[in-house]
Each structure stands twice: as C-alpha cells, then as structure tokens.
Amino acid sequence: MRRYRVKELFGPTIQGEGAHAGRACVFLRMVACNLACTWCDTDFTPANSRQLGATEIAGELAALDRRRARMVVVTGGEPALQWDSEIATTLAAAGFRVHMETNGTRELEAPVDWLTVSPKPRFHGATESLADIRPSECKVVVDESIGDSELADLERRYRHCEHWFLQPCDGDAKSLPRTLELIERNPRWRLSMQLHKLVGLP
Ligand code: SF4
Q1: pTM more than 0.85
Q2: Which of 56, 98, 117, 122 has its CA 20 to 30 A from that of 168?
C-alpha cells in the first residue's frame, strides 16, 4: 500500500476560489512542489506532515466532512506529483467528488472530477514546462508578469476550459487594479477573490 505525504487535512470549510467558490468542502493538502513562486503563500514543506495511506486519508476526510458535502479540494504544493489511481479510486469509493488545483506542469496519473490549472510559467526555470492537460478552469494569479499576450496564450493553450479567472496576488497592493484593468480589456476573464479569506475560514 502506497503512503502519501500529506501536509494537512482540514474542514469543513468552503472552496474560496474559482467557479465553485462558496461550496462546502474539505481540503487535502499534499507536501512538496516542483516550483518556487516568490509570492507563494502556502506552506507545503515536510515539517509536521504525515505519511498516510489512501484509506486513512479517505477516513479522515469523511470524519471532517460531518455534514456529508462530499467534495474534497486536493491541493499543495503540487498535488499532481503524488496523485495516482489508488487515491483517486479510494476517494471516489468514499463518495467524494475530487477538485484539484495544479500548476499545470504534470499530466495526471488518474482523473479528477474538476481540474483547475493555475499556471506560473515565469517560475518554470529551465527544467519545467506546461504539460498537455485539459483542465476545467484556468485561474491566473496576477503579478507583474501577466499581460494581454500572456492571457491570449493561455486562452489558446486551454481552449477547452469552461471558466477563466484572474486573481489578485495576495499582499501586492498593485495587483487588484492591474487585475481589473486586464478584465476590462479581456472580458472572457472573471475576478476571483479568495472568498475564504474574506469570511475568515481556513
Ligand atoms: S506552484 Fe503554487 S504551491 Fe507551488 S510554489 Fe507556486 S504558488 Fe506555491
């Protein structure tokens, strides 16, 4: 039985971002990421993490999900580094609808129900590139590297997406006006505002 490196499991809370913002869910945060974005606000280090089997993860998520919303957001770090058919089938058997957020640099070994790609190509360096994936939605964190041409490139790459979101970079006061200007010029894209932070949830 494989053991997964898990940073934290928490909930109940709400999905704060994207097309499913406001929905009740629980979270599974995996250890490790293959990128090192300078403005990353997430702790995905091995400190205080645990190694858990798929059945243990499903059991703990089910215990957290006491009102049976049965939606789990799988994030990291980069969850695609560990995602495989064993955990996918175990969570599905436990009744969970799986939503994953990926940086888009890895193909998934097993399917999920909803895939959010949040690409950060400026942090790829020489070793990473965007993989050939087919996400449900594209969510771009707006820093100074994001402009009209970057959005046009993403629209071409992820042309099958159902939803397009621009999210201000947390802690950067210039990011919100930049985001709103981009939305004015590129009306396919909508504002995403990390709803969970606005209402004080984890
Ligand atoms: S890809 Fe996401 S989790 Fe990884 S360093 Fe960048 S912002 Fe953080």
Answers
A1: yes
A2: 98
Active-site residue among 60, 102, 105, 196?
Answer: 196
Phi first, then psi: give them for residue 155, nearest 5 degrees: -60, -40
**Nearest atom, ligand 1, residue 77 CA:** 3
Cα-Cα-Cα-Cα torsion 61, 86, 8, 16, nearest 10 degrees, comes to -70
101 counts as catalytic: yes
pLDDT in tens, 47-67: 999 999 999 999 999 999 999
Whether 45 has a pLDDT exceeding 90, the answer reads yes
Domains annotated on the chain, with CATH: 3-198 (3.20.20.70)
The residue written with tokens 């820093």 in the block is 143
Secondary structure E strands in 131-185: 137-142, 163-168
Neighbours of 110 (CB within 10 A): 15
| Distance between Cα 67 and ligand 1 center (Å) | 30
| DSSP symbols for 77-124 | S-GGGT--HHHHHHHHHTTPEEEEEE-SSS--SS--SEEEE---GGG-
The pLDDT score that the predictor gives to residue 82 is 98
CB-based contact 66:51 (threshold 8 Å) = no
36 lines ligand 1 (CB under 6 A): yes
Range list of β-strands (E), the chain: 3-14, 24-30, 50-53, 71-75, 97-102, 114-117, 137-142, 163-168, 190-191
Which atom of ligand 1 lies at the shortest distance from residue 34's CA? 4
Clarify whether 41 is annotated catalytic: yes
